[in-house]
Design the sequence.
C-alpha cells in the first residue's frame, strides 16, 4: 500500500461548484503539504502543516481552503475556482519540516475546472 | 528572486549515460534534492546533497558544488524505465523547497 493516498484521482468541476480533495498518510509523519503542479512549471507549494498547525500559506487565493484535523489527514476545500486552477494537486508528507527530510508524495488529483 | 534552472527535455539511448544539470540561485542553501516523476505518477525521492561532492547510489549519482550553485544527476546504464521527469529542488535559508520545472528524459532503444 502506498504511504500517501489521495482521493479523488480525477475531478471535473464547474466554477460554481464546491468540492474537497482528501489526502491521507500512513507513515506516521508530522508534516503535510499541498502542492500545485502545472505543465512545464515548477511545483508550487500552497500550504504546509506541522503537527496539525499551518506553518506556511504561500499567498494562495482564498478559494482554496485547507484543513488538517490530525497529522494523518489533510483536506483542500475548493470553491468558485477559475479555469486557470486546472492542474495536478499533489499532497506530500515528511517526518518533520526541515532541510533534510525527504517528502513522500501521493499520486495527485487531476483537477479540471470548466 | 530565487531561480532553479534545468533543461526542459533530454534524449538518450538505452544503455548509455546521461547527465542532467541543475543550476540554482537562492537565498541561502540548506541542501538539494533530486526527485523522479513518471508520467501520471507521484514524484519519488532519489537523492539529497548538502556537502560538495559526488554521492553514488547504484546506477544513479548526484553531484553538488555549492560555490558554483550547481548540481547534476548522472544516470548510468540507462533503461527504458528511466524515462521520466527529473526534478531538482533546493532548500533555501527559510527551509522552504524551491523547485525547478523538471527535465523530461526520453530514452530511445
Sequence:
Amino acid at each position: 500500500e502506498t504511504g500517501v493516498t489521495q482521493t479523488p484521482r480525477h475531478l471535473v468541476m464547474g466554477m460554481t461548484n464546491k468540492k474537497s480533495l482528501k489526502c491521507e498518510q500512513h507513515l506516521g509523519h508530522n508534516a503535510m503539504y499541498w502542492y500545485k503542479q502545472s505543465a512545464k512549471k515548477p511545483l508550487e507549494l500552497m500550504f504546509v502543516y506541522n503537527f496539525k498547525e499551518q506553518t506556511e500559506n504561500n499567498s494562495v487565493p482564498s478559494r482554496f481552503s485547507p484543513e488538517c484535523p490530525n497529522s494523518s489527514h489533510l483536506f483542500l476545500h475548493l470553491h468558485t475556482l477559475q479555469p486557470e486552477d486546472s492542474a495536478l494537486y499533489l499532497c506530500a508528507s515528511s517526518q518533520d519540516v526541515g532541510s533534510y527530510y525527504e517528502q513522500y508524495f501521493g499520486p495527485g488529483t487531476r483537477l479540471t475546472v470548466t | 528572486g530565487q531561480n532553479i534552472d534545468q533543461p526542459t527535455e533530454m534524449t538518450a539511448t538505452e544503455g548509455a549515460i546521461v547527465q542532467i544539470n541543475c543550476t540554482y540561485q537562492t537565498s541561502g542553501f540548506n541542501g538539494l534534492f533530486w526527485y523522479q516523476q513518471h508520467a501520471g505518477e507521484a514524484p519519488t525521492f532519489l537523492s539529497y546533497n548538502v556537502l560538495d561532492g559526488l554521492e553514488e547510489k547504484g546506477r544513479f549519482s548526484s553531484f553538488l558544488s555549492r560555490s558554483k550553485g550547481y548540481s547534476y544527476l548522472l544516470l548510468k546504464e540507462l533503461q527504458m524505465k528511466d524515462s521520466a521527469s527529473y526534478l531538482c529542488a533546493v532548500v533555501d535559508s527559510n527551509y522552504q523547497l524551491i523547485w525547478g520545472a523538471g527535465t523530461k528524459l526520453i530514452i530511445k532503444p
Observations:
- The two ends of chain A are 33 Å apart (CA to CA).
- DSSP finds no helices and eleven strands in chain A.
